[in-house]
Design goal:
Layout (H helix, E strand, L loop, with lengths): L6 H7 L29 H20 L2 H5 L3 E3 L4 H4 L7 H24 L2 H21 L3 E2 L15 E2 L1 H21 L17 H18 L5 H14 L10 E4 L20 H5 E3 L1 H9 L5 H4 L5 E5 L12 E2 L2 E2 L8 H9 L4 E5 L65 E5 L1 H13 L7 H15 L6 H7 L6 H11 L4 H11 L23 H6 L1 H9 L30
Parallel strand pairs: 6-9
Antiparallel strand pairs: 1-5, 2-3, 4-10, 7-8, 7-9
């Protein structure tokens, strides 16, 4: 993993790669004498640039606002884009993913020229992952004619989602075949930041992506999906154990290679503190005594206590070890953390008979007295939730849970970008088996998905107890609920599953104008301005819905090909 410290330099040196999208008639004055000639670039040096960029961007989605969509987390302030899906055009996101493709395209080209079969497999797998993410997020996109700027293709046509998904599947099949016989002697140790040159693990990762995309298209291309999943299952080569998950570690040497809410680069801790567990996820976990709960979340700092003897409706001040702290309505998060670490307990009492909400227009009760308390999805103003005494700009809700302190860190431990997992593969096979496909037993795969997720988060010793609490009863809803939980910090997969199955049955809150969960990202004005005819052609193929709103077809609530005609998710 030492290669990470060189990544900024590698990125600088490889800046010349943008030329891959330009015409070759650049004048000599534009040549960079300090750059690396793309014609002599070493594939080993190209790999970490692609892999680390993709890992960080994918985590940014799955730990970020997509976690808000699938109600893993909510933000308790400044929450329009996170809780309420008030999205605008996705220009930066679009540029990021196509930027990775340009570098990856050179990785593949140089690997072929040099006969590096292992690197070819890596490049094809990453190409499929990146294009798959683009198609998943937006719908139709430049694919066949993308990355051909040096050949004069400056305004590429958009391929259909169907064409892109079929191309992804073919690339992954080719990559899997390459890994089966790849020569790894050309690999320089340390440059593969996922598997450090282990070609079998790469083949498992590649085949697990095949499982993902076969299931993704299962409603539209059921015969293709069935045959593909059955073949992968029969091969036995896919992610089966959490130790083989496709992950990228964060090393924390700079803000760019640290966890997104690392307090080393967020001195006020506001980015970490603002993000709270969503009640949808947290309540589900509490109900089944899920052992991952205490790994991901903290108990409330100040717990509400129902007290019928209380003369007033609610304590004005907090209580420390049962003693009212006169004049103290709240403490800062840092103060409470120090006091609780020292063994003190904080509470506030209320009389359930006489209690009346201070702002019934924003929070109408009842007070949540739980040890773990999540923020309900889509509140009008979540800063007021559970009678938080510090609202607005000063929000530090002592009556709602926070994420584990591990997510204030910069590196190590839980802080990994997870691109694919053994748990995901097991749940896909469980769903396939429930359809009647030859993919093993639905219950066995369901149980294994749970087991692998618990192993990922260090609580595998509690598997026997937990699996009894969520025992499989033959429903798809159970499979998708456990898969949704297991996709913590990789929420994009939960979003795409919800889109095709309407499971879990997530209910939007009262704040979103749409009253529905979004289905896609919005094509940007930059693309419309620069490649307008092709973008408008792609937009025209989207299906406008009752929720699409003023953006009409180019809306986050319009349906791409993948869910058109399926009746899903609504």
């Amino acid at each position: 993993m030492k290669i990470f410290k060189y990544i900024p330099k590698i990125v600088f040196v490889l800046a010349v790669l943008v030329a891959s999208s330009c015409k070759e008639s650049l004048t000599e004055i534009n040549e960079n004498p300090n750059g690396v000639d793309p014609n002599t670039a070493n594939p080993n040096l190209l790999m970490p640039t692609v892999m680390s960029g993709v890992g960080m961007q994918y985590l940014k989605l799955g730990y970020g606002r997509i976690a808000g969509v699938v109600q893993h987390t909510q933000e308790d302030a400044w929450k329009d884009g996170f809780n309420d899906y008030n999205w605008t055009e996705e220009d930066d996101e679009w540029k990021a993913w196509y930027g990775f493709l340009r570098n990856n395209n050179l990785l593949y080209k140089r690997s072929v020229e040099m006969g590096f079969t292992f690197h070819q497999g890596v490049a094809l797998t990453m190409k499929a992952f990146i294009f798959g993410t683009i198609a998943d997020l937006w719908g139709d996109a430049p694919y066949t004619n993308a990355l051909k700027g040096d050949a004069g293709e400056m305004l590429p046509a958009f391929d259909s989602q169907e064409v892109i998904y079929k191309g992804i599947i073919e690339d992954l099949k080719q990559a899997s075949a390459l890994f089966a016989t790849a020569d790894v002697s050309t690999y320089a140790p340390g440059y593969d930041v996922y598997y450090n040159g282990d070609k079998l693990k790469w083949q498992k990762f590649t085949n697990s992506l095949l499982l993902r995309y076969y299931m993704r298209v299962s409603a539209k291309l059921p015969d293709v999906a069935k045959a593909g999943i059955e073949q992968i299952y029969s091969s036995g080569i896919y992610l089966k154990d959490a130790s083989d998950d496709a992950v990228m570690d964060y090393i924390g040497t700079a803000s760019g290679d640290s966890w997104p809410t690392a307090t080393a680069f967020d001195v006020s801790q506001s980015n970490w503190r603002r993000r709270r567990p969503a009640a949808t996820l947290l309540n589900t976990m509490v109900a089944s005594n899920d052992p991952r709960l205490k790994v991901w979340f903290q108990p409330v700092h100040v717990r509400w206590v129902s007290d019928p003897t209380l003369k007033t409706g609610v304590d004005e001040f907090i209580r420390k070890d049962g003693v009212i702290q006169t004049g103290v309505k709240s403490l800062t998060e840092q103060e409470l953390r120090a006091e609780i670490t020292a063994g003190h307990k904080f509470t506030r009492h209320f009389n359930p008979t006489t209690y009346k909400p201070a702002r019934p227009d924003l929070f109408n009760g009842p007070l949540n007295t739980g040890e773990y308390v999540g923020i309900p999805a889509g509140m009008i103003d979540p800063t007021y939730y559970n009678e938080n005494p510090t609202t607005g700009q000063q929000v530090q809700n002592q009556h709602a849970s926070q994420l584990s302190y591990a997510y204030q860190g910069s590196k190590g431990g839980l802080l990994k970008a997870r691109l694919a997992s053994a748990a995901e593969s097991a749940f896909i096979l469980a769903e396939a088996a429930q359809k009647g496909w030859a993919a093993g037993g639905a219950e066995a795969n369901y149980n294994n998905g749970i087991k692998q997720s618990l192993q990922t988060w260090g609580v595998a010793d509690q598997y026997d107890t937990y699996v009894k609490a969520v025992a499989y009863k033959g429903t798809l809803a159970q499979i998708m609920e456990q898969k949704w939980i297991a996709s913590w910090t990789a929420a994009t997969e939960a979003w795409f599953d919800y889109r095709r199955t309407a499971l879990p049955a997530l209910v939007p809150g009262v704040a979103p104008v749409s009253r529905a969960l979004p289905l896609r990202f919005i094509y940007s004005n930059n693309e419309l301005n620069n490649n307008g005819d092709n973008v408008r052609s792609a937009i025209e193929k989207l299906e406008e819905t009752n929720f699409s709103g003023p953006r009409k077809k180019n809306s986050q609530w319009s349906k791409p090909w993948l869910v058109q005609g399926t009746g899903k998710p609504w």
